[in-house]
Write a structure and sequence with these properties.
By secondary structure, the protein is an alpha+beta fold. Helices cover 42% and strands 19% of the residues. It starts with a helix and ends with a strand.
């Protein structure tokens, strides 16, 4: 989000000055701020890691993206899931949006159910990073 803030501060006044050319910039900025990021922490070859990934791919998420990390791989500083890891030695997924992340999901069924909820309901399950 730091990079997004820097881009907004740098080019924000230009968007006002050049309205005809700023549509793509504004759409991209809105996507960056509101996109849904599913962070899955677990070994790539692990069946439970793959189940969590398939739970995401089984849902229509036009504003979503998924990141699969090996345990111990760092996230960029400031990422809302930074410092989180696997829970109880199990591959774990986190739903992150607008600087917040959910509690961890170790069950593909529970992740799938959470992704079905409206965004405002997902927000109630999230904790501030």
């Amino acid at each position: 989000m730091t990079r997004a803030s820097a881009l907004a501060n740098t080019f924000g006044s230009e968007a006002n000055r050049m309205l005809n050319g700023s549509g793509g910039y504004l759409v991209g900025f809105e996507y960056l701020i509101n996109s849904l990021v599913i962070v899955v922490i677990g070994h790539k070859g692990n069946a439970r890691t793959q189940e969590l990934i398939r739970a995401y791919w089984g849902k229509p998420m036009p504003n979503g993206m998924i990141m699969q990390l090996e345990p111990g791989d760092p996230l960029p500083p400031g990422h809302p899931a930074s410092g989180r890891g696997m829970e109880n030695g199990q591959p774990t997924a986190y739903i992150c949006q607008q600087g917040n992340c959910s509690n961890g999901f170790t069950s593909a069924a529970a992740l799938s159910e959470a992704l079905t909820l409206p965004p405002q309901m997902r927000g109630q399950q999230q904790v501030r990073a």
